[in-house]
Amino acid sequence: MNLKTAKLADVAKAAGVSTSLVSLVLSGKGSNRCSEETEARIKAAALELGYRANRLARSLKEQQTRTIGLLSIEVATSPYAGELLMAAQRSARSHDYDLFFVEVENNAKSIGEALELMAEHQVVGVLIAAFFHHEIELPERLPSNLVFANCFGSRGDYPTYVPAETASFMQSLKMLGISGHQNVAVIMEELPWPAAVARTETFKQAAQQFEWVDSARRMHFYADVNSNQGYEAAMKIMLEDPSVTAIACYNDRVAMGVYQALNELRISIPSQVSVVAFDDLELISGGLRPGLTTVRLPHYQMGREAVERLIRICEERDEETQKLVEIRGELVVRDSVSVPRPATESPFEASFSAPLQEKEEK
Amino acid sequence: MNLKTAKLADVAKAAGVSTSLVSLVLSGKGSNRCSEETEARIKAAALELGYRANRLARSLKEQQTRTIGLLSIEVATSPYAGELLMAAQRSARSHDYDLFFVEVENNAKSIGEALELMAEHQVVGVLIAAFFHHEIELPERLPSNLVFANCFGSRGDYPTYVPAETASFMQSLKMLGISGHQNVAVIMEELPWPAAVARTETFKQAAQQFEWVDSARRMHFYADVNSNQGYEAAMKIMLEDPSVTAIACYNDRVAMGVYQALNELRISIPSQVSVVAFDDLELISGGLRPGLTTVRLPHYQMGREAVERLIRICEERDEETQKLVEIRGELVVRDSVSVPRPATESPFEASFSAPLQEKEEK
DNA sequence: TCACATCAATCAAACGTTTGACCAGCTAAA
DNA sequence: TTTAGCTGGTCAAACGTTTGATTGATGTGA
User: Fold this and answer.
1) What are the residues facing B220 on neighbouring strands?
2) What CATH number should be reported for the domain whose range is B165-292+334-354?
3) Starting from the edge strand earliest in sequence, which strands make up the sheet with B331-332, in order?
4) CA(A65)–C1'(D13) in Å?
């Protein structure tokens, strides 16, 4: 493996045959073109010398690679970015494709340069992936074999795999609805990300469907809600509107703030107030107590399906006509939802002494 | 950019010159080998046709690529995996290198296959990166240009960039020490990960240095402490040993459980009990209230420095002799540490009504 | 006028692989 | 005896690029 690895000619010399035959035998295309004895000799020589084909030469000759470009937009801004990436990598490998990875910022110029670079490397197709669902500014020239995952292009009509925001969030909300909640508040992102727009709309639908009380008044918007505004929002909600029995959160991060507010207010989850969210960042949703009932963003599925579609396209056996594929996230039920407390009961009654006593007993 | 891009011969024909000259001009090596007029004509033709060099052919001819292999071990198990990856990618690009990405499980066989694959792609060097600090099982054959980031190999003596566990964690502990804390408990991982072993030792050193009381008794070990045991640990600590004024946590995730326990126990942070941790997962450390004072794992620096070292090695201009490089994480001071409460004061006095009243005033 | 430099450009080989065309020797059917 | 087919291989061209060697002008100094 060091510096120079053996080449076809070395194996051929060692086995006393031509390079052609070695190539044929090693690629399996030369069945019945040589004797078993020679075949064995060639294979032994290849093994002995640790021969590995030079993919550069092979691809040059064959006029195509088995490499796909993964163009990742601002990977680091999100935790769990890895999951889409991992899914893409594994799917590619399982089809014997390799991954050429470039990460850039979300602007047409950087993306254009990255695409040119990939073209130079003769990738057969490109997957553009982002780590939160948004629009990507595309340059003029685009490869024909292009698929989007967790984002969508500003131009063109390419296969696009995104989370089914509406259907997914609806699962969370339905959980509240069928549990009997009527007084549901929602803490939503105000900036017009696709996720925010869709989830807001979903809340309206759910409110109508389940006949939630005062739902219009109970929608609370914050710009850049990720920056810790869940706490303030929940404080405001519970203090100004104590009849609320459930809070739906834009995402897990918001829910984390909500938990802290409810904790401080001595409102117990879920017996006094139920909480649902979106994302399922295990670090949060599994780390909170009680565990957060939330919808898992389908990062893995988006990565896998986008790559498989891309490969089908590259191999010209894509029969799907649908461009936009929305993937529904799975509802992960933990312990943050229960039936609503009786309508007459104040939320400010959650006894805190209970867990304390439990512990003190022993 | 579609399917077939123009090649040297096309540009040559368009400009009415030989391919040699086009190559020379476009690579800048042909200064004063042709007239300015011809040079302009060639460049115009190249632009017109959207010519992009075929890197396969170039690398084959030049007998070397500018591609480095990034072998990532189990990327998805950690959030913020992206940061190391991003750092590696950006550093590589800034030196005009590209990244060939493979992600595998931590076993010698998978890693061996990935390395062979990279060798086939003629990478000039390999960076093996993991997303938590541990040992990597290596196969027999290893490339000569190999560097480790956030992990280390079971064999061989390769440049290795890891977090300075001791020096970093000591920053957190020193923060407690110089604030005057004497009764410090620690919640530590029991499994013998390098991080756990080193951080345990660091705690012992700090305890000795600052003359912490009963420190041996105040070390609490949990196997797989990431699975939410911070809560139970903190409960146990505060109920059995209420004189504790500060809790040092193995990592942010543990601190998250500690916060929840202290919240339930009505112990306020930091006025009654201070908390420090390790990792600085912004999702947690920035999302908790009050913000968690913790040490940032130097993912970005490890990625960057490892790649730059690797490139120096590949270009045979590496003058460093040191193999193991420990990178110190930065202490991120937020609001979870204060001076210890008076020795006579019980921790169970944090008034919860205060923030409630504040809010009710308006 | 000759030798020699310089300029502007071309030639041709090579990188490692793949693969259709070819070939020599043998057997079996026509 | 010819023909055809099989067995067990080899030959040589090609993929797109780079680059040392070469070349044919033109200019220049002795």
Assistant:
1) B187
2) 3.40.50.2300
3) B219-222, B184-189, B246-249, B274-279, B293-296, B331-332
4) 21
Closest-CA residue to B200 (of B178, B181, B216, B213): B216
Cβ atoms within 10 Å, residue B105: 11
Amino acid residing at A347: P
Kind and range of the H or E run holding B61: helix B55-62
Residue with tokens 């541990």: B134
Given this model, what pLDDT does residue A226 score? 86
Kindly report the bases of strand D lying within 7 A of a protein C-beta atom: 7-12, 14-20
Query: Pairing mode, if any, of strands B293-296 and B274-279?
Result: parallel
Q: What is the CATH number of domain A165-292+334-350?
A: 3.40.50.2300
CA atoms of A340 and A343, how far apart (whole Å):
8
Tens digits of residue pLDDT in B68-82: 999 999 876 677 778
Share of chain B above pLDDT 90, in %: 86
Specify the amino acid at residue B20: S
- CA of B6: how far to CAs of A117, A137, B3, B13, B184, in Å? 15, 26, 10, 11, 69
CB-count burial class (<10 Å; 0-12, 13-18, 19+) for A355 = middle
pLDDT tens digits along B268-317: 999 999 999 999 999 999 999 999 999 999 999 999 999 999 999 999 99
* Site of tokens 């899914």: A87
pTM for the structure as a whole: 0.93
Q: Is the pLDDT of residue A32 over 90?
A: no
Torsion of CA B80, B84, B86, B91, to 10 degrees: 160
Q: Does A155 touch chain B (CB under 8 A)?
A: no
When CB atoms are compared, the residue of B85, B239, B284 closest to A283 is B284
User: Least CA distance to A90: which residue of chain B?
Assistant: B103
Smallest Cα distance from A113 to chain B, Å:
12
Please tell me the distance from the alpha carbon of residue A35 to that of residue A41, in angstroms, as a whole number.
10
Q: Does domain B67-158+301-327 have CATH number 3.10.310.30?
A: no
Homologous superfamily, domain A67-158+302-327: Response regulator (3.40.50.2300)
In whole angstroms, what is the distance from residue B7 CA to residue A145 CA? 20
Chain B segment 271-300 residues within 8 A of A by beta carbon are 281, 283-284, 286-289
**How far is the C-alpha of A306 from the C-alpha of A292, rounded, in Å?**
29
pLDDT in tens, B83-126: 899 999 999 999 999 999 999 999 999 999 999 999 999 999 99
Nearest by CB to residue B100, choosing from A98, A260, A286, is A98
* Residue A76, both tokens: 């680091």
**CB–CB contact A257 B359 (8 Å):** no
Kindly list the strands in the beta sheet with A125-136, ordered across the sheet, starting from the edge strand earlier in the chain: A324-327, A160-163, A146-153, A125-136, A67-73, A98-104, B98-104, B67-73, B125-136, B146-153, B160-163, B324-327
